[in-house]
Amino acid sequence: MARLNLRQIRVILLAAAFLLLAGGIGYSLGSQQLKVNFDRAAGVKIERTLPAAHANLDFSLFWEVWDRLAANYLDKGAIKPAQMIYGAIQGMTAALGDPYTVFLPPTENKQTKDDLNGAFEGVGIQLGYDKDENLIVVSPLKDLPAAKAGIKAGDLILKIDTKETTGVSLPEAVSLIRGPAGTKVRLTLRHEEEQNAFEKELIREAIVVSSVEVSFVDKVAVLKLSRFGERTDEEWNKGIDEVINHQPGVSGLILDLRNNPGGYLSGSIFTAAEFLNSGVVVQQEQANGQRESFAVERKGKLINLPVVVLINKGSASAAEILAGALQEHKRARVVGEKSFGKGTIQEAQELTGGAGLHITTARWLLPSGKSIDKNGITPDVEVKDDPATTIDEQLEKAKEMLLK
């Protein structure tokens, strides 16, 4: 049984979900495949050398295109070597055909980490891809511009301002939607299973969002977990103390993982331990088929409290690990709709100059060894949310089950 070394393993499990921030770019390559020195007076000096281990690679076509663009492209001012290098690197990751393996220039990398801390400027949309690799809304954040405008989980994003999203990477989409608080962005969208597109003009806001919210309905505690970020363990502990100290005491807990896109693997394991005495929470499978199991490592405070978990199609990755572990250990019943279905693990690596690289390094499996990739977790009790009503049907069903 493996112990979780967060190295922080810096392992992230997101529906490649990026909150929308303001951004720019800047990056300098160190001893990478290209050595670039920027000199404002002399322009850009490029030393066309490769590390010895890759000396047999033929980069002649790359340099031929580079030189022809430099010599022949009409708008010389548009030739920005740094951005061309970013584009080349992003093309290299895109060539793998995996939308979750991405290169992030420094500003985007910093902002992605800030997103997990819940402090950002934007419109409150979390982005991902559907099974056909269309850009979609994984989830809108409650009470923020996107949600207030009626944007829903599963909506396809067809255009960002005038830019069509076909072939657009997640970092590029985020950059297009980002901007300072008070500025506007226009999105062209289409609701899932509908034919007609519609436009929404959104005004960006400065946003700080806790990952944990606690409320009480009758004798039931409702614990809403919106992501697994850097501060989630601390916020979770405060929420649990609030549940324990609430008067009168609670007879059950609803763990609401709806529209939770995931986050750090460690967070799902830490949270699962609140409800499990022992046992495997998740398995990690490497490319060679080797598996590691990560188990409960702490004593939880709610081991005996009845629990119902809520999920929907916006529940992904680390949220699916938590829901699946509690379901398979028969510690909780799961209510709602089938979850997103993202079963791969990305390792967040820091690069020279503050850039980042998210690499898919493994698959994650439920304690039983089952993969939910592209399939999702099936709830024990399926309840669809009816947008035509003001009632939260899923929450009401969970409450009914706990108060029987």
From TrEMBL:
Domain of life, source organism: Bacteria
Pfam families tied to this protein:
PDZ_6 (PF17820), Peptidase_S41 (PF03572)
**Gene3D superfamilies for this protein:** 2-enoyl-CoA Hydratase, Chain A, domain 1, 2.30.42.10, 3.30.750.44
Q: Name one GO molecular function term.
A: endopeptidase activity
**Ranges where the PDZ domain occurs:** 101-178
Query: What biological process terms from GO does the record include?
Result: proteolysis; signal transduction
Q: Keywords of this protein's UniProt record, alphabetized?
A: Hydrolase, Protease, Serine protease
Q: Which GO terms describe its cellular component?
A: outer membrane-bounded periplasmic space
Q: Which family does it belong to?
A: Belongs to the peptidase S41A family.
Name this polypeptide is given: Peptidase S41
Q: Which organism does this sequence originate in?
A: Candidatus Shapirobacteria bacterium CG09_land_8_20_14_0_10_47_13
